[in-house]
């Protein structure tokens, strides 16, 4: 007899992706370690597969070779006819979809954890793509509680025009893990330890769920993307102002109308416009200069999940 609201199928297949961006080294380092010795990620009755997603970019220690692997998992790319002319990452996306998908099918992996680093001061961040998933909200609640008092933030990228086709989106439950600040091409022991703990708690949650533990209703605070903000630019399209010192490293902190946002070379401050408080994330992220994004504005909200348990029990 199942007493919980949402009885879900047990989780059978989990993948941990490292090197989706080849210069974000924590995931690369951990996945390579787990490929040699995966004892710490094994759980009874669960298949856990560590995987290097973009080996060429990892070898070159660059974000990508031809295009961003974390943006090409939509049908327009996955459905392209295979040819030598295709960008390397598009061909790689098709291979990954074949191995871990196909996307939106019964055969796809249950969960993919995609490991990333950011140069922004975002600490431990979980990326959520679906605000209606009781299972993911419960998992994120478990990870946040297990990490406490270390803060862990949840970034909700559910947006009609700003969401993108992530590498992990081929799984039934995609989970992005973002830990920073860490420069590109660098490893930091503290950041590595935090990411490792996030994966440990996530796998413990899955194990407990599969074993029949019921998780009561819960709520989590999330930061939902509302808008991406570009740097001020001159007529040539070059950056004309930089992130203000008072905004630098202030990810997740409230940013009020009138607060300093940018600083011009001649010392002029450009404040936040509008009439409501926002919460900035990915502040001054190195990889987003090419995407013309100085930071993203988010709104803080609460998501609730019903109680869940495995349908096996």
UniProtKB/TrEMBL annotation:
<keyword id="KW-0378">Hydrolase</keyword>
<comment type="function">
    <text>Catalyzes the deacetylation of N-acetylaspartic acid (NAA) to produce acetate and L-aspartate. NAA occurs in high concentration in brain and its hydrolysis NAA plays a significant part in the maintenance of intact white matter. In other tissues it acts as a scavenger of NAA from body fluids.</text>
</comment>
<dbReference type="GO" id="GO:0019807">
    <property type="term" value="F:aspartoacylase activity"/>
</dbReference>
<feature type="binding site">
    <location>
        <position position="178"/>
    </location>
    <ligand>
        <name>N-acetyl-L-aspartate</name>
    </ligand>
</feature>
<feature type="binding site">
    <location>
        <position position="21"/>
    </location>
    <ligand>
        <name>Zn(2+)</name>
    </ligand>
</feature>
<keyword id="KW-0963">Cytoplasm</keyword>
<feature type="binding site">
    <location>
        <begin position="164"/>
        <end position="168"/>
    </location>
    <ligand>
        <name>substrate</name>
    </ligand>
</feature>
<protein>
    <recommendedName>
        <fullName>Aspartoacylase</fullName>
        <ecNumber>3.5.1.15</ecNumber>
    </recommendedName>
</protein>
<dbReference type="GO" id="GO:0046872">
    <property type="term" value="F:metal ion binding"/>
</dbReference>
<feature type="binding site">
    <location>
        <begin position="70"/>
        <end position="71"/>
    </location>
    <ligand>
        <name>substrate</name>
    </ligand>
</feature>
<dbReference type="InterPro" id="IPR050178">
    <property type="entry name" value="AspA/AstE_fam"/>
</dbReference>
<feature type="domain" description="AstE/AspA barrel-sandwich hybrid">
    <location>
        <begin position="219"/>
        <end position="299"/>
    </location>
</feature>
<dbReference type="InterPro" id="IPR016708">
    <property type="entry name" value="Aspartoacylase"/>
</dbReference>
<comment type="subunit">
    <text>Homodimer.</text>
</comment>
<dbReference type="InterPro" id="IPR007036">
    <property type="entry name" value="Aste_AspA_hybrid_dom"/>
</dbReference>
<comment type="similarity">
    <text>Belongs to the AspA/AstE family. Aspartoacylase subfamily.</text>
</comment>
<dbReference type="InterPro" id="IPR055438">
    <property type="entry name" value="AstE_AspA_cat"/>
</dbReference>
<feature type="binding site">
    <location>
        <position position="288"/>
    </location>
    <ligand>
        <name>N-acetyl-L-aspartate</name>
    </ligand>
</feature>
<feature type="binding site">
    <location>
        <position position="63"/>
    </location>
    <ligand>
        <name>N-acetyl-L-aspartate</name>
    </ligand>
</feature>
<dbReference type="GO" id="GO:0016788">
    <property type="term" value="F:hydrolase activity, acting on ester bonds"/>
</dbReference>
<dbReference type="GO" id="GO:0005634">
    <property type="term" value="C:nucleus"/>
</dbReference>
<feature type="binding site">
    <location>
        <position position="24"/>
    </location>
    <ligand>
        <name>Zn(2+)</name>
    </ligand>
</feature>
<keyword id="KW-0539">Nucleus</keyword>
<keyword id="KW-0479">Metal-binding</keyword>
<feature type="domain" description="Succinylglutamate desuccinylase/Aspartoacylase catalytic">
    <location>
        <begin position="11"/>
        <end position="206"/>
    </location>
</feature>
<dbReference type="GO" id="GO:0005829">
    <property type="term" value="C:cytosol"/>
</dbReference>
<dbReference type="Pfam" id="PF04952">
    <property type="entry name" value="AstE_AspA_hybrid"/>
</dbReference>
<dbReference type="Pfam" id="PF24827">
    <property type="entry name" value="AstE_AspA_cat"/>
</dbReference>
<feature type="active site" description="Proton donor/acceptor">
    <location>
        <position position="178"/>
    </location>
</feature>
<feature type="binding site">
    <location>
        <position position="116"/>
    </location>
    <ligand>
        <name>Zn(2+)</name>
    </ligand>
</feature>
<keyword id="KW-0862">Zinc</keyword>
């Amino acid at each position: 007899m199942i007493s919980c609201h949402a009885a879900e199928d047990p989780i059978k297949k989990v993948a941990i992706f490292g090197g989706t961006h080849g210069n974000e080294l924590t995931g690369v380092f951990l996945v390579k370690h787990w490929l040699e010795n995966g004892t710490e990620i094994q759980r009874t009755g669960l298949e856990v597969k560590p995987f290097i997603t973009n080996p060429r970019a990892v070898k070159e220690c660059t974000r990508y070779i031809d295009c961003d692997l974390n943006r090409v998992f939509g049908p327009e790319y996955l459905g392209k006819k295979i040819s030598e002319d295709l960008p390397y990452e598009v061909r790689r996306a098709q291979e990954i979809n074949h191995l871990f998908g196909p996307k939106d099918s019964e055969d796809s992996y249950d969960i993919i954890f995609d490991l990333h680093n950011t140069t922004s001061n975002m600490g431990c961040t979980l990326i959520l793509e679906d605000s209606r998933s009781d299972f993911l909200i419960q998992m994120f609640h478990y990870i946040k509680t297990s990490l406490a008092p270390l803060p862990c933030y949840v970034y909700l990228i559910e947006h009609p025009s700003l969401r993108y086709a992530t590498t992990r989106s081929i799984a039934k439950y995609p989970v992005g893990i973002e830990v920073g600040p860490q420069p590109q091409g660098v490893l930091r022991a503290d950041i590595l330890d935090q990411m490792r703990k996030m994966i440990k708690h996530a796998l413990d949650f899955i194990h407990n769920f599969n074993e029949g533990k019921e998780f009561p209703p819960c709520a989590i605070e999330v930061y939902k993307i509302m808008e991406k903000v570009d740097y001020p630019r001159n007529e040539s399209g070059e950056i004309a102002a930089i992130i203000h010192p008072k905004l630098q490293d202030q990810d997740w902190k409230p940013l009020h109308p009138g607060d300093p946002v940018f600083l011009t070379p001649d010392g002029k401050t450009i404040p936040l416009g509008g009439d409501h408080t926002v919460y900035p994330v990915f502040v001054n992220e190195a990889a987003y200069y090419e995407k013309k994004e100085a930071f993203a504005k988010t709104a803080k909200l609460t998501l609730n999940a019903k109680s869940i348990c495995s349908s096996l029990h």
